[in-house]
Specification:
Elements lengths: L2 H13 L15 E2 H10 L9 H10 L5 E4 L2 E4 L19 E6 L1 H10 L9 E4 L2 H8 L7 E6 H6 L4 E3 L4 E4 L7 E3 L3
Antiparallel strand pairs: 1-3, 2-3, 4-6, 5-8, 6-9, 7-8
Length: 182
């Protein structure tokens, strides 16, 4: 079984295009595992039937905790780009979070703040190393921003736990953003 390929397909189905797989996600982003397995097994991409054990293996070997199984349901924890908003429960983040971005977008961020863009929430990192890794997707030497979450929370901005390295938030105005490098 090609678990990397399966991981990408499950992430795509749950984060970006559940309709393509005829999946119905609940308000928290969960779908019945049985429904997902049926959809995946309808495709001819895999030489053997995909099972719950295969899904568990995908989660186990992933370096980024993107998926979660709870009882008989599975969901993507973050990164959703489809229209129906996934409800999140706000949580208390570390006092400082980080965001890695490209030099081509920094001027816009410093004028307008951080926005979700094509996602449902702004994605933030718990440490600079993770922010650098994320930022390198678009820029070889990304700009790293720090976010003053304590002040942001006091003004009503909500934060949501994505996983142990990723936090999500509502849009972040510029007064809570500081450039660490440029």
């Amino acid at each position: 079984m090609n678990y990397l390929r399966l991981s990408k397909e499950v992430s795509y189905a749950l984060r970006h295009n559940p309709k393509q797989y005829n999946l119905t996600l609940d308000s928290l982003g969960y779908v019945q595992i049985e429904e997902l397995l049926f959809a995946l097994n309808k495709s001819t991409h895999y030489p053997k039937e995909i099972t719950l054990e295969d899904l568990n293996k995908v989660i186990e070997i992933s370096d980024k905790k993107r998926l979660e199984i709870t009882e008989d349901k599975i969901r993507a924890l973050y990164g959703h780009s489809f229209i129906t908003k996934i409800e999140k429960v706000s949580a208390l983040p570390p006092e400082i979070l980080y965001h890695g971005t490209s030099h081509s977008t920094i001027d816009k961020i410093l004028k307008e703040g951080l926005k979700p863009m094509n996602r449902q929430y702004v994605h933030l990192s718990v440490d600079q190393e993770t922010a650098i890794q994320v930022g390198k997707r678009r820029d070889e030497a990304p700009v790293i921003l720090s976010i003053d979450t304590k002040s942001a929370i006091q003004s009503g901005i909500k934060f949501y736990l994505g996983n142990d390295k990723v936090w999500l938030s509502d849009p972040i105005p510029i007064q809570y953003i500081r450039v660490l490098n440029s």
